[in-house]
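ok so I'm stuck.
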Amino acid sequence: MINIAVIGLGWWGQEHVRSLEDSTRARVVCVADPDIKTARAFADERGLPLLPGLEDVLGDARVDAVILATPHSLHTEQVIAAAGAGKHVFTEKPFAMSRADAERQVAVCQDNGVELGIGLIQRFAAPHRHIKTLLEDGTLGLPMHGEGNVSHDVLLNLKSWRKSADQAPAGGIHHTGTHLIDLYVWMLGRVSEVYARIASHVFENDTASALLTFENGQTAYIGDVMATAEQRYFQLFASEGWARRISDDELVLRPRGGEMETIRFDPVDLVRANNEAFAEAVMGNAAYPISTDDMIHNVAILDAITTSIRENRPVAVT
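replied:
not stuck anymore, here's the structure
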């Protein structure tokens, strides 16, 4: 069992707290948020000490690790501060705002011997794990193309830093689109080039899309609209058929020359699964399933997408 402090008590920070309420691997011992007045009711309801910020947590000997549910641009300095204080650190995505910062974070964590986790929860969804297995055992044959869309209206009527171009220069791709990037990297390998576009309809930068080309020659598409009805899917096309995730516990599989099949899985709390995998790594029981190389590459792809949007051209992923 490890003791965790959650930094940032907005709607997603609260999800982290809820996910661990009855965990046998990690428990939240305190929370921190600069907006004490707004965060107070949630903290008091759960009997958690509420502090103003990360710096107030780092000196607490009880705390083994911190979860950062904070604005994207704060992650790098917060990860470096936490690692420097000897705290294991889990950060929400995107991991950093540039590849250089991502590399700094990884280096500091390694130098200080602390575990690093990231909020890329879709790797823990049963349909995605099943698709990965079908690729590895050859059932789907040669992977060729991926398509994914993560659209919603969660931010539509909210005043939120998540709408800021400073925090999300690629719009929703910097938020939920990073999940699709991670799934593609996990299943198809390294991305070599991107071409991305952004548009404004209901509010600034509410619509974004990107085409990805991989080192092995495959292609993929990402779509993200933050001002429409919810739509989340991930589909992989391969030489022996295709597989489409339509929910966190449902997959449609169509083999070439065969009948379409719907496969249902037991529900999984993805936030909890990721947090507990991080806790297991902190305790030395298992390796964390997302490599630091993949974390850095995810940010390198975002870097290239941001440049592509700004300059309206294909951009190589270094």
